[in-house]
Amino acid sequence: MPKLYFFFIYLMCRVRAGTEEGCPAFTGLSISSALTGTDLKVKLMLYTRQNQNCAETLSSAGSRYLNVTKKTILIVHGYRPTGSPPIWIQKAVHLLLSVEDINIIIVDWNRGATTLLYHRASSNTKKVAEFLKTLIDQMLADGASLDSVYMIGISLGAHISGFVGQMYNGKLGRITGLDPAGPLFNGKPPEERLDPTDAQFVDVIHSDIDGLGYREALGHIDFYANGGTDQPGCPQTIFSGSQYFKCDHQRSVFLFLSSLEERCNITAYPCDTYRDYRNSKCASCEAFQPMACPILGYYADKWKSYLTLKNPPVTKVFFDTSDKEPFCLYHYLVDIITWNKNIRRGSLIIKLKDQAGNTAESKINHEVATFQQFNQASLIAGFDQDFEKIARISLAFSTGSVIGPKHKLRILQMRLRSITYPERPQLCRYDLVLLENTEIIFKPIPCQNMQT
After folding, report:
1. Which of 37, 47, 125, 401 could form a disulfide with 115 if both were Cys (CB 3.0 to 4.6 A apart)?
2. What catalytic activity is recorded (predicted)?
């Protein structure tokens, strides 16, 4: 793939130095280490609420802070081609400890993951898993339970977590895979990668399936952010430097961390494909009743009992995000019935305004919508703000044509209904005429009976 090709060319040109800190810290290496390669060495750093600002290095001598009667989360990073520490470690520790009194073990295998030869790092994954089994065996001997062990694996770390789970016959409490690595793992049988049998509950976030991530479903539930490919706010060209290669891949981590802040919930919808989701074919949450559709991230295990009983126990869910934290979008269905005699094809820009004058905008242009006389077109729209009470709506229609006459879209009925909050009143407007590329603003009214 072109993105992967440019990724390795970029690595050959990059220079970056490691850093050292006062407390035990993640191993910082430089590009020179990547050039020569590093032998595998695993370091375990423990954080708890008693030492959340300064890690304790776990060793055979025992631990001052590890309490095996509590939940233990092991966080396993992935390939580190330049040797630098992951930028998300401290944020992950802080947020996890803020929501639960637990043990957090950062699994530092930077020596072994730092190399320009990706296959060399990949070949170390099962060795890291064997090392972690020794740790977990000791915890079990000291009174821990497998139910309380939760592994969060990023990229190659997701497959390491799967290998550990296999060693315990799927009895680990939970595994979360954050954009599991694709290269050298795509197409592999279940025993050679993460899969749903590796833990009692396996959830996966995909954010770079056309680059560094794994394309197919790997868990009981697989969340595909923006279809799992290009993430909003990430660079689209190689001239953006390192962010072009890692932004999409890393987005899975930041989406997970955002779920811990609970500023908003990212809801995902079950669907066969992202195309069907964007074409409004999968806006129903009836399959999960009496619960709502699943939410992404740390609290996804609330749907465990439903998801693990499915046959087969695999659910793919899709969602869109905004381009910045906390990444949430509030979704609506826009239902339109037109009375044009001729079929109209084009895109819509819809704006919502609340009583205070705040405005949110959504451009519906995933595919050119088709408006046919007396047939309802249902379009999905996402807004980065939530307005409980909408005072004004504006619509603008475009065919994308820069020459020729302007077309009109004659709307018989327009309905706006919240998917995020389906209990809210539905808003309508009747008898509108949209002149192409001309915004029309109106006050919505409560809906009368309208076909669904």
Report:
1. 37
2. 1-hexadecanoyl-2-(9Z-octadecenoyl)-sn-glycero-3-phosphate + H2O = 2-(9Z-octadecenoyl)-sn-glycero-3-phosphate + hexadecanoate + H(+)
